[in-house]
Amino acid sequence: MALTTRQQRPATPTPRSSTWQLQEAKNKFSEVVRRAQEEPQVVTVHGEPTVLVVSYGRFHEIARPKKMTFAELMATCPVDLTELDLERDKDMTTRPVNF
What we know:
The chain is an alpha+beta fold. It has one domain (5-83): 3-Layer(aba) Sandwich (YefM-like fold). Helix content is 32%, strand content 14%. The protein contains five helices and three strands. It has helices at residues 5-8, 22-27, 29-36, 56-63, 70-75; strands at 19-21, 41-45, 48-53. The protein has a three-stranded mixed β-sheet with strand order 1-2-3.
């Protein structure tokens, strides 16, 4: 037996819940924001996760990549750089360029 849309929707969030129906999130927006300071809050529309409410600090942790040194960047390279042929002819100081 298939569930109806109403049965699939989560109930009003409990203190440990992080999922809100849109109407409930609108009615209790202050509570959604308060809880988002602790953990991300999911807002559903017709039972489908649609929006994620996260704290400003958490957003910046996710959105801004960590700055790496060049050595750290090279260490994350998925290609084995030891197989890369970087040798040049000893008497060639520059490479030829066609204009």
